[in-house]
Each structure stands twice: as C-alpha cells, then as structure tokens.
Amino acid sequence: MSAGALSVEVVTGSSQESATRQEPGGALADGLPPDASAWAADDPAARMRRWTEGYAPRPGLADALMEADGTLRGGWPRFLERLARLDDREVAARFLSAERHIRDAGISYRVYGDGREHPWPLGSLPLVIDAADWAELSAGIVQRAGLMERIVADIYGPGRLVAEGFLPAGVVAGHPEFLRPVHGIAPPGGRWLPIYAADVGRGPDGRWQVLADRTQAPSGLGYALENRMVLARAFPDLFADLHVERLPGFFQAFRAGVAAACERSDPRICLLTSGPYSSTYVEQAALARYLGFLLVEGDDLVVRDGLLHVRTIAGLKRTDAVWRRIDADYLDPMELRSDSRLGVPGILQVLRRGGTVVGNMPGSGVLESAALSPYLPAIARRLTGEELRLTGPRTWWCGDPGGLHHALANLDSLTLRPAATPLRGPERDAMLAGPALDAARARAVASLRERPFDWVAQEAAPLSTMPAWQDGRLAPRPFVMRVFAAATPEGWRVLPSAFCRVAEREGADPSEMRAGIRSADVWVLSDTPVDTPTLVHASTPRIRRIAGHLPSRAADNLFWFGRYLERAEAVIRLVQAHLGVFSEAVAADASGAEGAPTALTIRALLKDWGSVSAADLSPAALAGEALSGKVVYGSALSHVLEARRIAASLRERLPTESWRALADLRDTLVYTEAWAPNEAQLFGKAERALGHLAALSGLIHENMGHAAGWRFADMGRRIERAINTCGFGLRFCAPDAGAEDLGVMLSLADSQIAYGARYLVGVSRDAVCDMAVLDPHNPRSVAYQLQAITAHLDALPALAADGLPEPHRRRALTLAATLQTAEAAAFDAEALERFETDLEGLADGIAGRYFPNGPDALRPEKLTGLA
C-alpha cells in the first residue's frame, strides 16, 4: 500500500480523530494543535514560516537547524521546503502511519532495570545533515576507529604505550574491562574491533565532538536500521526527492568484513545474545534477520575439539564467527565470571587457538574508559603521526596528581564522571549535574580523596540541540548521535546514518533510551541522486535452498509457539460451543440451560484446563474469563500472550506480518473490566479471534520457508490439536453420547459442514468418532495430524546413520499405524485415553531428541561436522 493510500485511510472516520488527538508521551504527542483546521489553506511558504516561528537556538549551544542569526543550516531548508508541500493533516497522517508500523512490527525496547517492553519511541522528524558536514564527521570517525584498533592491540600485546609513558598503567590495569586472560591472544582474523561506534554531538563552536567511545558491544545499529525502514515507509517521496544516502551497502560491507576474517569461504556466523529479556533484543533479532546471522544464546554454543560449535537439530555444526552482544566478562565462565550463564565455557581457549572470530574481541571495552580521553591526542600523534580530528570536552584523570589537583580546585565548574563503567539512572543524573550542593560536594571530595583513580573531571559539555516536532511547530531539544564504523575488506566504512536519541524536554540527558527520550532517524542528504546498492554479486555463490541448520533452541521455541496457539484455539472453540449450547436452550425456552449435561461437561473441562476460576459462573462471565482472563493461566489470552513471548525470541524466523497478526489477536481478546459484554458480543469476539488465528496460521504456512523451522512450528500445532481432540472425544464422544454432545464434538473438530455433506441422517457416535479421530482425509482429525507429524519427522535429520528409526519416530509410526487399522466402534474411551497419553509421550520424545531441555536430554552431539 502506498503512503498516499495510507494517508487516505487514516483521515477517514475514527482514524481522523486518531490523527489529530494529543496523547502525552505517545508518538503523536507532537501531532496537530487543536486549531489546525484554520491552517488547512496555508501555502507551503506560510506553513514553513509557522513551523519555525519562535524557534531559537539556546545561548551557548550549537543547534542542528539554525545558526545564531536565524539562518537555516545545511540541508534543513531543502527538507522543510519539501515537507511543507504536505498540509498539516497529511503530515499528521504520515506520523500516524509510522506509529502504526512500529506497533504492527512489534518494534520495542526495555528500559534498564525495567522488565517491561515499551513501544519504540521514534520521533517524527529525522536529523538532517548535508553531505559535506557528514564527510567531515566520517573522516574523524574513520581515524578514531583505526586509532582505537591500534591502541587495544598494543594494550593486549607489546604494551609500548604504557612502557613509553603515553598511557598510565593505572588507566589500563585499573579498568574492570581489562581482561588479563586475554593478554597475548592474537585475534583470529586480525581484528579487535569489527565494529566501532562513537556518541557525538556538536560543541559550542558547532564542530562535532566525541562524547563517548563504544567498543564493548555497541548497541543501536539495529534500531538505526529500524528507524530508517519506518520513516522511509512513511515519507517515501521525501526520501527519494532529497537524495538520502542508503544503508544496505554498509551492512553488506560489514558482513563481508566478518566473513573475510573467517577461514572458510562460506562461514557460519552467529549473533550471540543474552536472550529475549535483553534491553536491545529486538534490534539484535532485526540485525540477525537482515544480515543472515544465526541468533543464538550461550547455551546454544559448545566447545568441542578446540573449535566452537552451535547445537542444531542435525548435531553440532562449526561456528566460524560470533558477533557478541553480551558483556565480555560474561563470555567465558571458566576464565572470567564464574557465575555467568550467558557465555560459552572454553571460548577463550578457542580464541587462543585461532578457532573462531569474535567481534568485538573480549577486553575491547577497556577503550570505553573516560580516563583514556586526556591521552588520546598524544597517542594519535605517536601512532599515526596525525592530529586527532575528533576530540571531546577537556578531561582530567584524577588518578594523575595534576588531574586530581585541578579537579579539587575547580570542583564547582567541572563534572565528575566514573572512569570506568558509567552509572545509570538517578545516580548518573545526580553525578552529571555536578556537585552543586554542599552535601554533594562533600561526597565528591571524599570519594576523590579515597579513590581518585576511579574518577575523571570534565569540562561542562552541554548537549547541542536539534528540532523536534511539538504542537505543530519545531522546538529545539538536546540530542546525542551514535555513529558506526565497520571494518571491511576495503578499510573502515561509516554507516551513512546514525542512532540518534532526542530528549522530549529541555535539560534532559538523552545518553540512553528511557522514559522521556525518543529516537530519530538520521538523513544524510546528497547533492546528487544516490546510487541504490545492488544485491547482484559478480560471482555466483554456492546455491542453497535453506538458510542453514536450525539451532535446537529455535526448534524448541517454534514447537511451543505452535502448541500455545493451538491451545488458545481449543479454548476459544470450547467457549463458542458453550455459548451455542446456552443460546439454543434459551431459544427453545428451556430452563436450566446452564445445568444441562453438555454445558456442565464444557464448564468442567474449562475448569480442568485452568481457563476459568470456577465452573458455576454465568455464561457471559464464564466466556469472558475463558477468553480474556488475566489471572487464570489457561485462558485464551494467557496462551496468546505466551505465544507472543515466545515469538519475541523468533523475530528473525517468523514472517514479519505475523507480529501484526499476533497483536490483532491479543487486542481482540483484551477488553477492559468496565465493559460488560453479553453472550452475543462474546461469541463475536471468539469468531474474530479464530479469524486472526486462521490468518496467523496462513501466514506461517504460506510465508515461512518450509524447512525445519516451519516443520517444528507445524508439528507443535498438530500434536497439540491431536491431544486436544482425544480429550474432546473422551468427553463428547462416549458410547452413550447424545445428539448435543456429538454436535459439540463436531463443532470442536470444525467438521459440521463436512459431516452434513457426507451423512444425510442425524449424528451417530461411530460416524462422528470416525470423522474426528480416524479419518485421514479430514484436516482436523487425529489421524491427519499423525500423518503430518510422521511426514515432518521423516524430513528432519536423523541422529544415527544406521537406517533404523529413532525412538520418537518409531513411536509416531506406531501411533499412525494404530489409527490406520482402527475402527470407530472399537475406539472406545479406554483407547482414546491411552492414545492421548501416547501423544504426550511422543511430544516428550521429540523434545528429548531435538531440544536443549537439561542435563538428561538426548543431545544431538554425536554428529559433529564442519558443515
């Protein structure tokens, strides 16, 4: 759908109200002011004047939009003139479409210390920088990245900088990121820093300055990519007309750089994450998907024979490179932090043997020390023969006697910062504010005198500002921009964009993402049309039809993702069946409908499943709790939320549209306690939820590659459906079942129409049992599920090469054969109960074979290959 079509959609009906409403803290808090209708006839020039009216740079601060005399800087006139061709309602509609895309794609983040997911707070306007200004900044970043590479190589190698007096030993050895076990290791592939980042802003003179180096495991690259995708989608016309530099070329070059460092020509590259609860997990998944890396956790990797391997459903497969996104001291519990559950035991030994490329190398975080800053200019002259192009605020390390004396003598005018790990949250805010109060001054002096080497003193560095959209006008707000450089086969390459954080109010510090901080895309405007990076390679790569071997953890998550979706569907169908039984009884003017045997059976089953808190609720209360209960573990909503939690760890594997379908499903089931729906409304809610489930199932079936990952997701649904159908048969397909019970059974198996077309007479127990359990042509029957499961297992890799079926496959074949030879009349309650137990055993057998369930699980480690 084009952006124009989106705009038409959002300004009609109720969407028009959404486009103009004011929401505190939301992406549209900076939407149209209440009197915007009076401005509809503005011409572009008048609109541009109104946007900038009253905008003024703050005294002593550089501003990205405007010079002190009011002149617009760089590429901003081009951008605003082009944006002003859109009227205010169209601009608001574009902003709303960006917000919708963020919601539909599930782009989110977590605040440090807060486990909740928050929608990604993307600002409405990009930061605009012209090509000449960006070229100057890029040259400084390239120089600084190369300098950092040489410094860290010296620190863990010959140590000449310390020996020659260019760098105090205390700055290195006293930093917690100096890892002694890494000393003497030559990085496989020759690079310590495959990726470098720097937080930058403009100094009071308008020139770029570095506020902090990011060498540990720089975050934000994935969010920069997501920001670009969102805004380019919302403003495709502006993006093309203004010649905004493209990003794909950088990511291709970065991937090529990592691959070139590996020994094999077709390497397996993993992105190591701490898991779904990482504050930046969403961006890690986005990067893994975009770059084609395997997203793994520490338990997915294992050291064997001096090499690093990833656990897959086909055995251990060699890992050539790891892009780590966990802190270095958690990387190897054998030699670093022994309490770490995030790393890989023995990986440092693999590095010593040159067996795996790791970026960034453990120990590179020592370069983030604020105490390094005072010595960088001299080190740059020593190592490169050049002056440092990008400097930062003047800094003094208090571990140096001269620096301590200067800090104590000028405490009121300086800011104290930790020399090592930055503080977070309120502690950081209090420290960055400077010791202005007497109590703060006393604490600062005591800390400086006791442990001076823990601190640096820094000249005040007020953050420069950029325009943010607020109440239909532009307002200056502080920002920090993180610029990335990648080591490629052709040298350092800078991303032609950045990860920008903007404060929503004056005086706030946007050094990290948290409440009150937004992100912004960064548009580098070229003077000429930019080349669209080609994806066509000069040489044909080795042809492949699957992305690679499926990690065991991903298989586990996909399997349970399917099972939870099927559990939600079963609960919804039970609710529909109960409401149907109740409504039919009411229509027949029957009394005691809630106490009818069939209704009682459904209520008891919902209670057994934990879908309701009590079986004697009113029909509406029971349906509402089973569908949307938040305090019961077995409600449809609870299962959907669990599936959504699992899906968060599968972002790089599921179709992108599936997150939207999950969000729609969740939103359909959720309702506020103030709303008291009746039975008809609840039935409609259940119908809509089943529609979203069907759409999600279709997305997975049609848009997901039918390789091992899809097979596990489909197996999870089918084994859960088979178990549920057996359970339904036990309760509604007994030998003495009445017409109402059998009708419910057909409803739960979604087979009413098929049964009516096949049998012209009324319902029969044996006929219903045959259709719901034994019919291999009915896609809802147990037999059909077993056929699909055995086909999936046949297509999955075998652990042994002797040709004999493994235990889980033998069990599946036995169950399928049982159904093929059974007759409905003989398939009684005992047989159904036994079969349900056998299906649970089959699920456990699949888990034991393929999933990393614990020390007793059958791990596929007997097959260790180089492929």
Automatic annotation (TrEMBL):
**Which residue ranges does the record assign to the DUF403 domain?**
550-851
The Circularly permuted ATP-grasp type domain is annotated at: 126-503
Q: Where is this region: Disordered?
A: 1-38
**What InterPro entries does this protein's entry cite?**
ATP-dep_Glu-Cys_Ligase-2, CP_ATPgrasp_2, DUF403
Instruction: Name the Gene3D superfamilies for this protein.
Output: 3.40.50.11290
Q: Where is the composition biased (Polar residues)?
A: 12-21
Top-level taxon in the UniProt lineage:
Bacteria
- Per the UniProt record, one Pfam family is Alpha-E
User: What name appears for this protein in its UniProt entry?
Assistant: DUF403 domain-containing protein
Q: Which organism is it from?
A: Methylorubrum aminovorans
